[in-house]
Amino acid sequence: xxxxxxxxxxxxxxxxxxxxxxxxxxxxxxxxxRSHFNYISNYINSFITEKVIEDPRLVLESLxxxxxxxxxxxxxYEFRTIEDFTDFLITHKNxxxxxxISGKTIQSYWNNGEPKQLKLNVLLVFLNIxxxxxxxxxxxxxxxxxxxxxxxxxxxxSEYNVLKNSSYHNIxxxxxxxxxxxxxxxxxxNNKIVKAPFIIKEEDGAIIAETCTEGHRYRSFPAKIIQRNxxxxxxxxxxxxxxxxxxNIGLETKPEILFGVSIALTVKEGLPVGIKNVFVxxxxxxxxxxxxxxxxxxxxxxxxxxxxxxxxxxxxxxxNSIHYANHCRxxxxxxxxxxxxxx
Length: 343
Description:
Elements: H1 2-12, H2 14-21, H3 34-54, H4 57-60, H5 67-77, H6 82-92, H7 103-109, H8 117-126, H9 134-139, H10 146-152, H11 167-176, E1 178-185, E2 192-203, E3 206-213, E4 216-220, E5 224-226, E6 229-236, E7 242-248, E8 257-265, E9 272-283, E10 295-298, H12 306-316, E11 322-324, H13 331-339
Helix pairs in contact: 1-10, 3-6, 3-7, 3-8
């Protein structure tokens, strides 16, 4: 009887309904084909993967996969620790999400198939049901209603959550903290390159960034992960302004170079601007650039320093390293921008 509550909650889940609306206008689950259920399972599996990355206990305590299956995976992929497994999930989640429950299995449950305990647990994790309520949902009457489940599921995706005590936090702490040189084209003089210290460090259980660019000190709020990018929202400590850094970490675990984009305001005019960034890691030591000040380098000068020379040549080859959001009011303004290439 309890499984009926789970089925109803899945069928009425706002995320599932929204995801299905991209594919079909049909709402009768009994009429869905295998293709529909595969589509649903892909969404559920992506969500469960994020949950396991945040809370590996779900696997360690055999709550959603069996011990034998986990051991077979460990032998096949040479996992020695649960961190190896979560690293594997992070690396592969955008290529081939791990299958916690198949479309075939979900389809069988909607056609009077006998549900297995571990698969029910997968669905309950997806519904954000606390573990102490699982038995009520599976065997009795849940203490939380289906409508309340919908309320609990609203909000930002899990990638936007603060990384404290998660495997994402551990990976950033292990591989990405340290001292970097940040290079970008000066927004007030496009023939100049700014080279500034950029520190990624762990502080009070969170990953944050600190930098000083064009005379302004910035400190970030705790880092977030958006797909395979580190997201830093940095507050200017010297005046009322914020700067955003998106850094593409890809699948790399020992980065020497990272590319990114920052969004800020120009110093003189206050124009919104998107700026291409290059980060060159110097050391895992967060203190080696602590007293180093930024410097400006002429884009056309020859540098004896190999790092600076390579980065300068990179920027020379880029057609667009800065994108300004100029003020534009009318269609005539837009035509003037087209005719005036200096803008």
